[in-house]
Automatic annotation (TrEMBL), chain A:
Its cofactor is FMN; [4Fe-4S] cluster. It comes from the Bacteria. This is NADH-quinone oxidoreductase subunit F. NDH-1 shuttles electrons from NADH, via FMN and iron-sulfur (Fe-S) centers, to quinones in the respiratory chain. Signal peptide: none annotated. Its EC number is 7.1.1.-. The keyword Kinase does not apply. It catalyses: a quinone + NADH + 5 H(+)(in) = a quinol + NAD(+) + 4 H(+)(out). The keyword Flavoprotein applies. PANTHER family: NADH-QUINONE OXIDOREDUCTASE SUBUNIT F. Belongs to the complex I 51 kDa subunit family. InterPro entries: NADH-UbQ_OxRdtase_51kDa_CS, NADH-UbQ_OxRdtase_suF, Nuo51_FMN-bd, Nuo51_FMN-bd_sf, Nuop51_4Fe4S-bd, Nuop51_4Fe4S-bd_sf, Soluble_ligand-bd.
TrEMBL record, chain B:
It comes from Niastella soli. Keywords: 2Fe-2S, 4Fe-4S, Iron, Iron-sulfur, Metal-binding, NAD, Oxidoreductase, Quinone, Translocase, Ubiquinone. The lineage of its organism: Bacteria, Pseudomonadati, Bacteroidota, Chitinophagia, Chitinophagales. Residues 221-277 form the 4Fe-4S Mo/W bis-MGD-type domain. This is NADH-quinone oxidoreductase. InterPro entries: 2Fe-2S_ferredoxin-like_sf, 2Fe-2S_ferredoxin-type, Asp_de-COase-like_dom_sf, Mopterin_OxRdtase, Mopterin_OxRdtase_4Fe-4S_dom, NADH_UbQ_OxRdtase_75kDa_su_CS, NADH_UbQ_OxRdtase_ferredoxin, NADH_UbQ_OxRdtase_Gsu.
Amino acid sequence: MERPLTQYIHPGCPPFDIREYEMTGGYSALRKALSSMTPKEVQDLVKDSGLKGRGGAGFSTGIKWSVVPMGEDAPRLKYLIANADEMEPGTFKDRLLLEGNPHQLIEGMILAAFAIQAEESFIFLRWAYKKAAQLLRKSIHEAYKAGFLGKNILDSGFSLEMHLHTGVGRYMCGEETALLNALEGKRATPRAKPPYPQISGLYGKPTIVNNVETLCNIPHIVNNGVEWFKGLSNSEDSGTKLYGVSGKVNNPGCWELPMGVTIRELIEEHAGGMKNGYQLKGVLPGGASTDFLTAEHLDIKMDFASVQKAGSRLGTGTMVVMDDATCPVGFVHNLQHFFAQESCGWCTPCREGLPWVEKMLLSLEQGSGTAADMELLEMHTHMLGPGNTFCALAPGAMEPLQSALKYFKDDFEKHISLHKCPYE
Amino acid sequence: MSTIVIDNKSYEVKQGKNLLEACLGLGIDLPYFCWHPALGSVGACRQCAVKVYKDEHDTHGKLMMSCMENIKDGLRVSVADKAAQAFRSQVIEWLMTNHPHDCPVCDEGGSCHLQDMTVMTGHDYRRYHFKKRTYNNQYLGPFIHHEMNRCIQCYRCVRYYHDYAGGKDLNVFAAHNHVYFGREQDGVLQSPFSGNLAEICPTGVFTDKTLREHYTRKWDLTTAPSVCQHCSLGCNTIAGERYGQLRCITNRFNSQVNGYFLCDRGRFGYEFVNSENRITQPLIRNQAVEAVDETTLMGHMRKLMTDHTLIGIGSPRASIESNVALMQLVGKENFYQGVSDNVRFIEKRIVEVLQTGVVKTASLQDIQQADAILILGEDIWNTAPVMALAVRQSVLKTAAHHALKHNTGIPTWHDAAVQELVQEEKGFLANCTITASPIDEISSCIAHNAPDDLARLGFAVAHQLNGSLPRVLVDEDTLAEVIDIAVFLQQAKRPVIISGTSCYNEALIRAAYDIAVACKTPDKEVRLAYVMPECNSMGLAMMQAPSFETAVLRATREKNITAIILENDLYRNAPAMVADLFFNSVQHCIVLDSLNNLTTQQADILMPAATFAEGDGTLVNYEGRAQRFFRVFMPGQATIQESWKWLLKLQALRTGVLNEGELHPEDVLKQAEQLLPQFAGISASAPHHDFRINGQALPREPHRYSGRTAMLSNLAVSEPKPKQDNDSPFTFTMEGYSGMPPSPLIPFFWSPGWNSIQAVNKYQQEPGGSLKNEQAGIHLFKYNPHAVPVYFKDIPEAFMIRNDRWLLFPQYHVLGSEELSAYSKGVRELSPETYVAMSASDMARHGLTNEHVVTIKVFEQNWDLPVKADSSLPNGLVLIPAGLHGMAVPNWNAYVIIMKGNR
């Protein structure tokens, strides 16, 4: 089983420096692309590979790139941004790549920048990833020294600058347009789309924002080709995926596996099954903003289409397992507390709706909830749906709530009838 | 035009608009908060949701925000859709979760957009039963009251203050449901356009603090359409009264003049009307009982009117009616302007230039739409603030237009996307003034020079545009600027050249004209604007009378002169020496004015004049636009009358001919037309006093006006007979025609369900567009496309720095430099202290620091003033603040000696 992204990552050991990285084939994809491929060819290759964004939305990376204006008349500068603001609760896959092989990301970024002919690139890094910041700074410096960054890279005529930007800890910055505003020094509120960042992004110029994991795939696709990439997967979606499991399992962690392993495989084989005395009650398959799945869904394949069909989303591919000793109301309240706090305050439904939801869940958990609260929670899951809010934060927040109301309704009702939390 | 379907009905609507605008334009009520016609769309509040359908087979539809939906042919939407209605009502419920529901004690109550929208959506019972979040309020200065708990986070305040008006000290802080709109810390709002927050805010977060001191609900105000008295722009206002007190000024939308916004001087400068310093009774000085009634006064006057040579001193702040009545009383040859010779000389040139009809004048709307602007000399930020706001819009709009040319697909109404695309780019603005102003930060080309050098720069631009004009020798840096300016003016389709009187330099007026003429080509619309000192300076200047100094000269030579001074504190328009000489020379002095001042102290006879709020009149603004202001209320004392009424009475005494029936404002204006052909058409600037709709007059009071039987019950229990107004189509009651009056006669904006100022939508042809049947006054300067331009060409010498002398100029201040507004408590509070500004290097050369006091000597006058460094001021010039209350007027544009004083 190939693990192209994590092959050289050994947790606990320092990552490869540029020499080691090059010795194991690093920057060969960059040399290849710059010497023998046109930007259009790189774009097409990535499009043909079927690579989908690993940040959660699962949109085709190649198609995303293809919208960027190309040619002489295209507005300048163009920007390529790595979204390394990994803040989805339960998600820690990008951290593995950032700390484990920073040059892989840098090479992926240079290739992506080449494909869209960007002159400037940024890594927008979560503030708390201090170690990653340190490693990235060192690696960017090495790449500049080696001539992979800066003017006229490898004599190809292509130039690229790269900057590391550390955020200040707002979940909102993971949304690509809010990230752009934050990068410009403005409030981290999302922007209306259209116009999409490819047309008017950072400083109003064409911009691509890609997830760290997405970008790390690029060198391997360039080196090994479309067929190889498709062959890595055992589902319709190409490539491998970094999957994670957290919760009361024996061996929580993060693994690179073929796209489309089942939830059961992940939990039982890789995470070592539930801890003694705990039963699986539900699973958030792709992070905190995805719908619950339950024990009956364990054989669902973890790819974009299959999870969607089961009523949830692959999201970031890092799942949170809820066990039978955890109160679903308390669990969901905890999530809503997070989302309410991280709302940027721009649009009414999210700013005012989420704190209301949070308060109702707390009052349910404390035993003072009423049947009317249940109706209001239900109402919010509809009213805060996609399209009604300015961005996807609140609709994402409603996903665990609406599925909890569906699958764990008894638990909610017991809180009302017992006037206390039955899990206490 | 596009055909769209709303609730199964087809409509033809304009392209390039969004769906919300289209719906409002069609009269379909859709609630909104974050959108504003002047600010565009950002899609934040989610209040204007409608259902949008893919095609006629789509029965499901999708909720979309109408403010973010571009109009395209075949668009199918439903406003009435149940889900859309439920969502809109839900948005209100959310907004209301933390709202204090303090309408009964809220200043916005009754004119609150949030109230209107709440009722419109149908939301009633609240289901949120948790604690509300609360905020601390801030002290924001004397004009704006802050009450953050009422905030519904629509972001309009910061979008207006920051983006539209360029203010920096009001911001949005914090996040999620703790978003806070205010300053970094308590303190006075720095923007001179802060008062508009009270109208931009859809609820009671930012309210008029001066109104709070004598609060009245909108529905309890007696209001009339008015025109601002505090500069030459002629912004349209609504003035409101109760209990004989003027209570507030609000904006009166007019697409040609001020649009949606006023400056703080205009909005808060009204308190002089209520001042304790008002003259309320006629006085005959030097007799045992000075205060007299009208009959006694007139008896006394009879002799004066017939036995003496009468001369009249007109006023740039009195109406055309009053100035013309004075001219008629004393005779054309005995009428003087009441402004100093140097000002009259410049103003005469301006009138001359505009009367040629070669170049069109620029309205504030034209300035907003300009694609390149050159400001030559005038400090418009301080002398004509709303013009500075218009200039800012031109700079932003031009940049947006430029950016959008390359990025089709982003509609112009999409404010957030447009700003994102535009970034720091700016349309062309050259600001060439004596010293720095806040306009510099949006200018692409900045020059700070002595006025003569600015004029030379202007002539150099004219030469650059038309090589046949004389060359001007300028240094290399200036030449680069000159070429830059000329290139942009040449490329522009709608360039505007702005100058004015505040530099006391006539060459600037000629230079501005030469530039305008030189860049005129058949395919472009060049416009010219000259800012004047006061609200009716243009009207007075058009009367083409001699200056005050000429009157002084005559008074010293002739005996037996009785001077009638109309609403003019001559000590503000001439050095004290000159004014003193005048008063010592005339035999009798009759003064008509509303407030006591140095001139009224010199009066032998004082006649109480009505202010703009108590009388009717017409003002001619800087572009030659004659606009009527209407009496808001009858003054408490019958002895307070419009000056023109007093003067008509004096004329009757003089001629012995009693007027057959009363003369109305339009009759006086008709006389003006006969007397002075340049005023042709002015009597049509507003409908006449006998104008009626369906036989009905127009009420000044809204139909909800309350308390009229109780208001004066402490005096008499029976309701007093309403006062009569024979001079205008308005009544002092709530009875009369209740529909929409013609635009010059709109006393208040109200429409069923729309109690706030947002009701303006209903009066417009389309949201943000012109008023229905808009008539924005009468233009007195007629453009003549066939006029043959004549260039001036004579170029002043370059300014020479003198070793021992400095050239003195005024530094204007939005708050403090204007006479009447300085009576407002807040304006006085924010007026600057006196100072003299010098360039830093001049100060260093003379061993001066910011701690020194210097003595300025002009002729025989001395001023002791603290000195301060102005890093943008050219060497050899000094500035002292203009028009500050209680500060004597020096000779501007004169050389002064400066003596170092103590630290």
